[in-house]
Design brief:
The structure holds two protein chains of two kinds.
Chain A lengths: L3 E6 L3 H13 L4 E7 L5 E2 L4 H5 L5 H4 E3 L1 H6 L3 E4 L3 E5 L4 E4 L4 E3 L2 E4 L3 E3 L12 E2 L4 H13 L2 E5 L3 H12 L3 E5 L12 H13 L3 E3 L4 E6 L3 E6 L4 E3 L2 E4 L3 E3 L2 H5 L8 E3 L11 E3 L4 E3 L7 H15 L13 E3 L7 E5 L8 E7 L4 E8 L2 E8 L5 H10 L24 H7 L5 E3 L4 E2 H10 L5 H8 L9 H17 L15 H10 L5 H7 L9 H14 L13 H5 L2 E2 L5 E3 L10 H13 L4 E4 L5 E6 L4 H10 L12 E6 L13 H12 L8 E6 L13 E6 L2 E6 L11 E6 L2 H18 L6 H8 L1 H9 L1 H18 L3 H6 L10 E2 L3
Parallel strand pairs in A: 1-2, 1-9, 2-5, 9-21, 11-18, 12-13, 12-18, 13-14, 20-22, 34-35, 35-36
Antiparallel strand pairs in A: 3-4, 6-7, 7-8, 10-19, 15-16, 16-17, 23-24, 24-27, 25-26, 26-27, 28-29, 30-31, 31-33, 32-33, 36-37, 37-38
Helix pairs in contact in A: 1-9, 11-14, 12-14, 21-22, 22-25
Chain B lengths: L1 E8 L7 E6 L4 E6 L5 E5 L13 E3 L2 E3 L6 E3 L15 E2 L1 E4 L2 E7 L8 H4 L19
Antiparallel strand pairs in B: 1-10, 2-3, 3-4, 4-8, 5-6, 6-7, 9-10
The chains are: A alpha/beta, B mainly beta.
Chain lengths: ~800, ~130
């Protein structure tokens, strides 16, 4: 298919965003040509204020450089102004004679500053505030001259004035009315803003109407209608913008204030021509903020890509002032009328003002000054038309006061719903950002900007995005695991899935994935391993273990080492051994030329450097000598460590080694959510370190103290005392019941220590104190142990899973 | 120059699992996807040489058993943010048998030192009908 030609007039934010959206949807549909009047690539025009204030550089605000156009096969005519659109021939003609043919045309010529038609307005040093050229002019004047006058106390005027002040100029802001930013602020907020800017050194002439710009060739002052004069080396006119419609008008497109477009952003005169951005009038409104432009861009791109499903229905806008250190937010109808009510909080001393305008218990508008953290929340409530009667009392105190959360911004961000819009410019919701952070493992603000565009336009939501980032990344440690999905393949939590498996009797992995609408066909290593364990735990006698859903150590029944060889640890029950056993291990080590042997922390002997294909033969020799697998490789019961106890030790109170052997005989082979270690100490001197084990027994003269939830790993945790019992039989029953409760309740890969802290010791105590419940747990444990204690080494030595251990040799 | 060599029956590779193929001079992991799509990749993670054949396969990706790098089996590339590439080999299945396209190496194999300097050979990413690109 021959590609159609798409021409864009106007290399600014709205137009180029349309191209970006289009390239996402239909990258190969058009040959694209762009005309831009300015000699730059596409830059972030709203960030000109920070550039003027020296908080950013031009490089930092470039959005699309030449390489981007080249990479996307776009022909860019920089510094070429389009002079004419010939609709009959479907051609665009630039002043230098460049002609481009179009099948579809986008007009995105933006707006021009409205220059007051004052006498002397054409003098050198009188400018608007629109582009890089204007900023360059201002910076240059600021280096040589002192007095700047900004005409217009609106958003743009104040940002210009702030920037010029930062450049060291004396700045006077002239405003026709008695309140600043009257389109965005009510009187109290405007007064607080004025006071704060005055404190920074800005001068205001309110209710002043300019009569004349005085000077010769260059401006030297401004005269007002009341006859007064002030000196000026630079006059910035920031009284408003008007849509730049000249080109459209000349082409015969219907224009009112702007070029009139329909809901698909096509001009109502010529459907081959789209118009977008500030030059447009849609349903009677011409927008001058960035958020609506981006929404328009999405719709126009969708239509250009011939998807034809999107419609633009107008945008509700909100405003923030980009003056560092001044927090200001406004949205909707913040003045109100006789049908509305208002809730107001004002603390002039601390510089905080909040006003919310309500009608029928819905937010119609809001002005916030000083504390704007809840701006996006109010804005969301307003757009959603939420009935706020239930929390009207505390509405003004913000979202954090809805629940029991604290007061820092992090928790406020945390309490926002996923649908809450964080970046108004680019329409990015909290859910999008969090998803990008977790899925793409983002750690910096710039990465979040690159991936989501959040805070990449005006930057006023930077604080929110940062706290969201801090909260999401930091959440790995602090977030309650209850709310974390099992993995990225599902939105459901470990608990949801474990309960679902039992409740709906989901007995295979595909059944679980289908029931919970998994997002990936075969899951990922995280969920496959977890599901395999959960199913094995729930249906111990029925479930067929899936070897491919086990980490290699459990599949090969050895520990993989960094060179790809394995280690072999035969089980020594309770850490006890005989000379014959040691001799057998030594023989095996000799036979297989084991390069390294070591005694482990769990009182076992580890043989390193074994090739995988050697394992079954080695296991045969070991099982022939009476050994079983030591499970040193598994998320499983590992070892029972003992000290020597009453048989030999002069301090020993009970037979700790004998009990250790019995405990290990009971529990060996059991698959667990994570590795699980036991120890039995013969007396409170605790030589077996039982109080940093998952289940530890400390023998005392009158019986046995049972300790749980200890850990000697990354984060040392001392056990909690579960109970004290009198007989070995009770120890065994408690141990089996505890193992089973952990197996059934903990999340996969959750050691007992964090599990105890998450669910609380009380819950575990309750489950085990109840004799009937304990017995039931113990019995379930015994049932699950029947298949688990079929020695995997012996089975493989006899030929099970032979393919796993047999490489294929090819003579090539 | 290269040739197709029969290496194993498809049903001797576990679904979502792999078999290790040892040729005279290298180890190659052959994976079988859930839809019986077959992939072959040098059995060494670009990170620290971990044996990819021992990793867990999911979709068309394998996770290295040593440090959890994820390697795309169609291209051999590590998934972002990790960077690196392991050679992939053309494979095909005919009559339930898996064929691997291997470069013809001279007999006997090159001495160790020269082998390391051999030009890398890349193959088309299509796992079933790829032809060597030289």
């Amino acid at each position: 298919m021959l590609k159609e030609n798409l021409v864009l007039i106007g290399n600014g934010m709205a137009g180029v965003r349309t191209l970006e959206e289009l390239l996402k949807l239909a990258p190969d549909h058009y040959n694209i040509t762009v005309f831009g009047e300015e000699p730059y690539g596409n830059y972030n025009r709203i960030m000109l204020s920070p550039v003027l204030a020296s908080e950013k550089t031009i490089e930092q605000i470039m959005l699309n450089d030449d390489a981007w156009y080249a990479a996307n096969g776009i022909t860019l005519h920089k510094g070429k102004k389009v002079e004419e659109i010939n609709r009959a021939r479907r051609e665009v003609i630039a002043t230098d004679g460049t002609v481009a043919h179009y099948d579809r045309l986008i007009i995105a010529t933006g707006s021009v500053p409205f220059m007051l038609p004052l006498p002397g307005a054409d003098k050198e040093g009188v400018i608007g505030f629109r582009d890089i050229k204007d900023v360059d002019t201002m910076l240059e004047v600021a280096r040589k001259h002192q007095h700047a006058v900004v005409i217009g106390g609106g958003l743009l005027g104040l940002e210009a004035a702030n920037g010029l002040m930062k450049q060291g100029m004396d700045v006077t802001v002239v405003h026709l009315l008695d309140t600043l930013m009257e389109r965005q602020l009510d009187k109290p907020a405007a007064q607080m803003l004025q006071k704060s800017l005055e404190a920074r050194g800005m001068t205001f002439l309110m209710e002043h109407s300019t009569a004349e710009i005085i000077g010769n060739q260059r401006v030297i002052g401004v005269r007002f209608k009341n006859g007064t004069e002030i000196p000026a080396d630079l006059v910035v006119m920031a009284v408003g913008i008007k849509p730049n419609i000249e080109l459209g008008k000349a082409a015969g497109l219907h224009c009112e204030r702007g070029i009139v477009v329909n809901d698909t952003l096509q001009t109502i005169t010529d459907p081959k021509i789209y118009a977008i951005g500030e030059c447009v009038q849609h349903r009677g409104i011409a927008y001058g903020l960035v958020a609506p432009l981006f929404e328009q861009a999405k719709v126009a791109a969708n239509h250009l890509a011939q998807h034809g499903i999107a419609r633009y229905e107008g945008t509700v806008t909100s405003t923030k002032l980009k003056v560092t250190g001044i927090e200001l937010f406004s949205a909707g109808d913040f003045i109100g009328n006789d049908k509305t009510e208002e809730i107001v909080f004002k603390d002039a001393a601390s510089g905080t003002y909040k006003k919310i305008v309500l009608q029928d218990n819905q937010i119609k508008g809001a002005v916030l000054y000083g504390d704007t953290v809840d701006g996006s929340w109010y804005f969301q409530l307003m757009k959603d038309g939420t009935d706020i009667s239930a929390f009207r009392d505390t509405l003004l105190f913000g979202q954090a006061h809805l629940g029991d959360s604290g007061h820092n911004p992090d928790t406020r961000v945390a309490s926002l719903p996923d649908s809450a819009e964080i970046c108004g410019c680019n329409g990015v919701c909290k859910g999008d950002i969090v998803k990008a952070i977790t899925e793409k493992k983002l750690f910096t603000l710039d990465e979040v900007r690159a991936h989501t565009k959040a805070s990449a336009s005006c930057g006023s939501c930077t604080g929110l995005v940062e706290s969201l980032l801090a909260h999401t990344v930091g959440g790995d440690y602090s977030a309650t695991p209850k709310t974390k999905p099992l993995c990225k393949c599902t939105d459901y939590t470990h608990d949801d899935i474990r309960h679902g498996i039992i409740q709906y009797s989901l007995k295979t992995m595909p059944a679980v994935r289908e029931h919970f609408e998994w997002k990936t066909p075969d899951g990922c290593p995280a969920c496959r391993n977890a599901l395999n364990y959960y199913l094995l735990c729930a249906f111990p006698t029925e479930y067929v273990d899936d070897a491919q859903s086990r980490y290699i150590n459990e599949r090969a029944h050895g520990n993989i080492q960094k060179d790809g060889t394995y280690s072999v640890v035969p089980r020594l029950f309770g850490g006890m051994c005989t000379a014959d056993q040691l001799r057998a291990i030594a023989d095996v080590a000799d036979k297989y030329q084991v390069p390294t042997m070591k005694v482990t922390g769990g009182q076992r002997i580890d043989m390193f450097g074994i090739q995988k294909e050697q394992l079954p033969a080695m296991w045969k020799d070991l099982t022939d000598a009476g050994f079983v697998s030591g499970h040193a490789y598994g998320k499983a019961m590992r070892t029972v460590k003992t000290c020597v106890g009453s048989e030999w030790c002069r301090f020993g109170t009970q037979d700790s080694t004998g009990l250790g052997v019995k405990l290990e005989e009971l529990t060996w082979g059991s698959w667990m959510p994570h590795k699980f270690k036991l120890a039995v100490s013969g007396c409170p001197r605790n030589c077996a370190e039982a109080t940093i084990k998952d289940f530890g027994v400390v023998c005392v003269d009158s019986g046995y103290e049972l300790h749980i939830g200890g850990n000697g790993g990354i984060k040392v945790r001392v056990t909690d005392l579960l109970t004290k019992v009198e007989t070995e039989e009770q120890v065994l029953e408690y141990c089996g019941a505890f193992c089973q409760f952990y197996r059934e309740d903990a999340h996969y890969l959750e050691r007992t220590a964090p599990w105890v802290e998450r669910v609380g010791l009380d819950k575990i105590k309750k489950a085990l104190e109840d004799a009937a419940g304990r017995k039931a747990l113990y019995e379930r444990f015994l049932i699950s142990q029947q298949p688990a204690q079929i020695d995997p080494w012996k089975a493989r030595a006899e030929g099970a899973e032979a393919l796993e251990f047999t490489p294929i040799t090819v003579d090539a | 120059m290269s040739k197709w060599i029969e290496v194993v029956e498809l049903n001797k590779i576990p679904v979502l699992g792999s078999r290790l193929i040892k040729t005279r001079d290298q180890s190659i992991a052959v994976f079988r996807g859930s839809n019986d799509q077959v992939f072959a990749i040098r059995d060494a993670c670009p990170h620290k040489g971990g044996p990819l054949s021992q990793g867990i396969m999911h979709g068309t990706t394998v996770t290295c058993p040593l440090h959890n790098w994820k390697i795309d089996l169609t291209s051999g590339n590590a998934l972002a943010p990790d960077e690196g590439c392991s050679n992939v080999f053309a494979v095909k299945v005919e009559d339930g048998k898996v064929f691997l396209q291997l470069p013809l190496t001279p007999h006997p194999p090159l001495p160790q030192g020269e082998r390391g300097r051999k030009k890398k050979i890349y193959f088309s990413p299509s796992p079933l009908e790829g032809e060597g690109l030289g």
